[in-house]
Structures are given as structure tokens and as C-alpha cells.
Design a protein that fits this description.
205 residues; mainly alpha; two-stranded antiparallel sheet; 2 strands; 5% strand; elongated
């Protein structure tokens, strides 16, 4: 259990540093997010229309309209543009400390989960170092597919943004895997059984 806690903390630190680098140092997201033309006018429209905090999809249609080729929604959806709008009505200080603290806590929590899962698998499928690295990388790929992949498919998030975010997640968890795979190792009892089995097999040959 101590190894799991240590691995969770160290892995969370590694992933946190990686995220900071992808957004502030490396050009991972340079082309995935752009400034909206007429930003000030758009902000004024959001304020004037009293748009509340939430997620909005444009064009929006009822279940009946979505399945009706004759509906105005159907025509607008075919013509475009299509966009998802995420609105936070109340502003706050950019890059405030709370965001970094919360982000670090989330990364450590995720790393703890990965470490606990790896601990359970280390005595079975993941006895070698690289198998354990692959296990954690698999968690990152899984997370990328069910989150960013799903948003790309269902919410029409642009491909460039999806790929950059998926790359960030997958590579980040690969780096975490390289670290925690050396901390979370198979229980000694499993290693002893393997050694004994190998010795018996060698003796028989």
C-alpha cells in the first residue's frame, strides 16, 4: 500500500509537470485553439442576451427536429456552421492559484487510481517492467478514446484540437507509467513462486 501511495504522488507530479509543459513550453496546442474573430462583439452579445453558465450546441434541435429532414434544424445542421459554446458567466483572475492546486490534486488522484490498478495487475499480467508501463499507457489511451474521441465524434470537436488533447493525455500517462512501473512491483510472494517454478522446470529438463 505504501508503494501505491508513493507511486500515486510521484506519478501525479510527473503528469502535472507534463501538462504545464504542453501548455506553456511545448507547441502541442499552438494550432488547436484560436482567437474568435470579433471577440468583443461576441462577448457583448453573450452579456446582452443574458446567457447563463452552461454548455450550448448550435444549431440546437428537439428530438423530433433531429429526425426530421424537413425541419429547420436539419437544414441548418447540413449548412453549418456548427459549434459548441461553453459559457462561464462569472469571470475570475486568469491563472489563479486555485486552478493549479486543484489540477495537481486531480492528477495525484488519477495517478493513485492507476497505481492501485497496476498493483492489482502486477501479480498477473504485468510482472515485467515494460508490461506495467504498457498497462498504464493503456489507461491513457482508454481515457483519450472515451473522452476526447467521444467529443470529437458526437460533439464535433475539431480534429486538430482532439488530436492535441489525446496526444497530451497518452504521452502524459506513458511518462507516468515509466515512473510508477518501477515503484509498483509484483509482490515478493509472486516472484518467489515464479523463481521456484523456473527452478523446477529447469531441473526437469
Amino acid at each position: 500500500m505504501i508503494r501505491v501511495l508513493v507511486a500515486g504522488l510521484v506519478g501525479g507530479m510527473v503528469y502535472y509537470v507534463w501538462l504545464v509543459m504542453t501548455w506553456m513550453v511545448l507547441p502541442v496546442h499552438d494550432d488547436s485553439m484560436q482567437q474568435l474573430p470579433g471577440e468583443d462583439q461576441f462577448r457583448a452579445m453573450v452579456v446582452d442576451q443574458e446567457v447563463e453558465t452552461g454548455v450550448y450546441f448550435v444549431p440546437f434541435g428537439s428530438p423530433e427536429e433531429i429526425g426530421d429532414p424537413e425541419s429547420g434544424f436539419y437544414e441548418k445542421h447540413q449548412e453549418g456552421p456548427l459549434f459548441t459554446l461553453m459559457v462561464q458567466r462569472d469571470g475570475f483572475e486568469p491563472m489563479r492559484p486555485q486552478i493549479f492546486v486543484t489540477g495537481f490534486a486531480l492528477d495525484v488522484a488519477a495517478s493513485l487510481i492507476a497505481s492501485a490498478l497496476l498493483w492489482g495487475a502486477a501479480g498477473g499480467c504485468c510482472r515485467s517492467y515494460f508490461a506495467r508501463v504498457g498497462f498504464v499507457l493503456g489507461l491513457g489511451l482508454f481515457a483519450s478514446i472515451v473522452s476526447h474521441g467521444a467529443m470529437w465524434n458526437w460533439m464535433l470537436v475539431p480534429t486538430a484540437h482532439t488530436l492535441s488533447m489525446a496526444f497530451e493525455v497518452a504521452v502524459g500517462w506513458l511518462l507516468v507509467g515509466l515512473v510508477i512501473a518501477g515503484i509498483v512491483v509484483p509482490p515478493k510472494s509472486v516472484v518467489k513462486i515464479e523463481d521456484k517454478t523456473a527452478e523446477e522446470a529447469s531441473a526437469q529438463t
